[in-house]
Write a structure and sequence with these properties.
Layout lengths: L1 H14 L1 E7 L5 E4 L2 E5 L1 E6 L6 E7 L6 E6 L3 E2 L1 H9 L8 E2 L3 E4 L13
Parallel strand pairs: 1-9
Antiparallel strand pairs: 1-4, 2-3, 2-5, 5-6, 7-8
Length: about 120
């Protein structure tokens, strides 16, 4: 019974992956897949399967939005690989996000519609 509980903990822990997203502008709002996660720097975590795609949107009032893409295919996950050998299903989560990612946010003000 203890073995099964330990195995379940390893399998569930192997499914999750976290990355820290940082912008060059500490006031830039960070969204992942349309969901607000923070300003300037924020942690993002999910249980998506390997090779899933995410869209990061950076925004700030008066500035154009910028979008970037990242996928869950950056680092191998030893726990998921071992769990996959034992159970099979965790092979869906054999990769993780890298620990951190940084994006340059250029806040070139939007043109004033009244002047054009």
């Amino acid at each position: 019974m203890k073995f099964l509980l330990a195995l379940a903990v390893v399998v569930l822990a192997a499914c999750s992956s976290t990355t820290t997203i940082r912008t060059s502008d500490p006031e830039a709002r960070i969204y992942v897949n349309g969901e607000y996660i923070g300003t300037g720097q924020a942690a993002y975590s999910d249980r998506k399967v390997s090779f899933s795609r995410n869209i990061v949107t950076l925004s700030k009032p008066g500035c154009p939005e910028q979008q970037h893409e990242f996928r869950r295919n950056e680092d191998p996950d030893g726990g998921a690989i071992i769990g996959g050998l034992l159970v099979g299903v965790p092979f869906l989560w054999v990769t993780e996000y890298k620990d951190q990612r940084a994006y340059e946010y250029d806040c070139s003000p939007l043109p004033d519609p009244a002047s054009g």
